């Protein structure tokens, strides 16, 4: 199991988990849900107390990944499998992203 902290404008919004079977779970932090001024991180992941589950990486996070030759270079330089989408997300979305979302690893 691997876990990542999801930040919205550098504030903790929720947690993304990749389970050992390859499925994913996203859950908003309770403090994020209780603050009515905080938005959803995505239209496809509306603010809710329930967890979101998926057999594959949620499209919102998948769309943050590099493609083509950029993906190949990042994977080669970081020794990542081309199909390790969670590892690729952790590598490429931890600092400088186009949107308000950044992803940081949580050590288990």
UniProtKB/TrEMBL annotation:
Keywords: Kinase, Transferase. InterPro entries: HipA_N1. Residues 5-103 form the HipA N-terminal subdomain domain. Pfam families: Couple_hipA. GO terms for molecular function: kinase activity. NCBIfam families: couple_hipA. This is Serine/threonine-protein kinase HipA. It comes from Alkalitalea saponilacus.
């Amino acid at each position: 199991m691997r876990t990542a902290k999801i930040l919205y404008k550098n504030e903790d919004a929720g947690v993304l988990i990749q389970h050992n079977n390859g499925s994913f779970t996203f859950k908003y932090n309770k403090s994020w849900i209780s603050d009515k001024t905080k938005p959803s991180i995505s239209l496809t992941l509306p603010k809710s107390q329930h967890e979101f589950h998926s057999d594959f990486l949620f499209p919102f996070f998948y769309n943050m990944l590099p493609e083509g030759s950029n993906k190949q270079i990042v994977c080669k330089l970081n020794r990542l499998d081309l199909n390790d989408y969670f590892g690729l997300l952790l590598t490429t979305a931890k600092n400088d992203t186009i949107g308000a979302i950044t992803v940081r690893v949580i050590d288990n």
